[in-house]
Each structure stands twice: as C-alpha cells, then as structure tokens.
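User: 13035_t:CDS:1, Acaulospora morrowiae:
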Amino acid sequence: FWEGRRLWSTMTIAIRNLTRTIWVSVKEDDSVDRIIEKKTVINLLVGFAVAVKHYLREEEGTDHEDLKGLISNIRSTLPGFEPLSEQGQKTDETPENHRPHHHKHYHLNHHHNLVVNHNLPLEITLHISAYIHSVDVNVPTKNTLIQNLNMLVDCLSNFERILRTPIPLAYSIHLNQVLYIYCLSLPFQLVSTTGWPTIPVVFLASFVLIGIERIGVEIENPFGYDENDLEVDDFCGIIKLEVSNITSRPPPKVQDWIYSSENHPFENEKNLNAIDARNKDLDEVRSILSQKTRNTSELTREDLNEDISIKVEDRNTDENVKN
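Assistant: Predicted structure for 13035_t:CDS:1:
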C-alpha cells in the first residue's frame, strides 16, 4: 500500500517536472504550431497517469471517458497492437465493488505468433519520447526531459511489480492455518493460570491477530475501487487540474516579475524597487549590498553578545540559589 503511494508521488513529480520544463523551456517563437505541440504532449502526460490507473485496475481498451480525450490522436505502430481506435470497447463504468484480480489479460496475435499484453502507458511514453528527441532545446534540458520520462517508465515497472507479485498462495494458506491453530490452542494454555478471564483475553488476541492478517490481504493490491484502496481517481484529477492551470497562461517572462515596481530586492532599502535600482550605477548597487552585509554582521554580533550575557546571568543566579 505505502509502496504504491510512494510510487504514485514519484510519478506525479516526474509529470510536474516534464510539464514545467516543456511549457517553459521549449520556445514558442510566437508560433501556434509550437503551442499546439506543447499542449498535445502535456495532454499525453496526463493521459499517462490516467492510463496507468486503468492499467493497474486491469481495465482494457481506450474507450474510457477520462482517457480517450487525452490520447485519441495517437496511433499504435508496435507489432501485435491494434490501432487505438479499434482496441477494446470497455468503458470506465465498472461496478462499485469490483476489485481487480491478479491475472493477466493477454490476447494472441496470430499474424506474429506472439502473446501480447497491451501496455498502453508504455506506448504513450513512446510518443512522448519521440517529441523529446525532435524538439529543439539545449542538451541539459533534453537530458532533464529524458530523465523524467525514464522516471515514469520506472514507476510503471514498479507498479507492475506490486500488481503482478501477490503473496504466494502457499505462504498465505500456511500463515492462515498457523494463525487459527494458535488462536484455538491459546485457551488451553491460559485457562489453568488465568481462569475465566481467559475468554476475553483469547477474544482480544484473536481479534488483533486475525485483523492484522486480513488487513494485509485487503491492502495487498491498493489500486482498485474498495474503500481501503488508494484514491487514484482523485490523484489523476489533481494532476489534470495542475496541468490545466500551468498551461492556461503563457510561460512567465523574467522582465514581468523581476523588473517590477512591486519587487524590492534589497532588504535594507525597502523603498527601492527593482525599476529604480536598475537606473543606479553598479557601484551604488554594490554599496547597498555591502551595507546589508555589514548590518547583518553587526546584528549577529549583538545577538551573540546578548545571548552570552543572558547565559552568564542565568549561571550566576543558579550558583546563588545553590549557595
């Protein structure tokens, strides 16, 4: 459960980093085409999170209301995959009490004689990767994009590890049997020394131990629809809302928020804003900065001397009390 939550947080971080870097670092050059490209790729990032949600719930197909609007423009080219428009007709109208099972959905591709499990999130990363390699940005920015994309794939692989690696059946059966044998034999061990309180003691011990065992089974797969599962629907909604807020306005320009009358960069010159400071020469600005450093140093020395005086007075007071 906690591993799944940690991985989802890591995936959210990667999506935020990719969205921020693409929206700010990829130049638009006053071109509508660049804006469309950036927004489309960012939509795929949101689609990746939603596709991961359905993939972990083992809901096949792409015809989900919260997904098809984000990825309807991409087409599959991998061997063994049908075009996205033809893949499955399932919707996200899943019964409330449905919980995904630990089995794999495979379909057989007779043309290639391969057993293929349609991994839609992985396919989405292929399109994002193609955009990253085609976009004209500097090398550090491109490396950052690739690194965060690799983080998404890493999270997906770890999600699959949680989903496809349940507690071994033999271990689960043995643990359950040992637990019940212990609870049934516990009264015979306590009755001779405890007497009638054996009944509530055994009841409480059995309640705690069996409860812990059932909780472990309940949260083994935390990606479903149960009350105790992770709120992945809300997580996807938060990602979509954040991305929409970021892309709802153009990337911030440095001139707009640094060289502003509301920006007061010098703490010891409260009335000096960035626009007025820009009209000063370099020596005046250096002088203001050095004055700030001197004031800070003097303040630090005064505070230190005051602390020393207080400690000396406290020590003298303690000695007088002892005497």
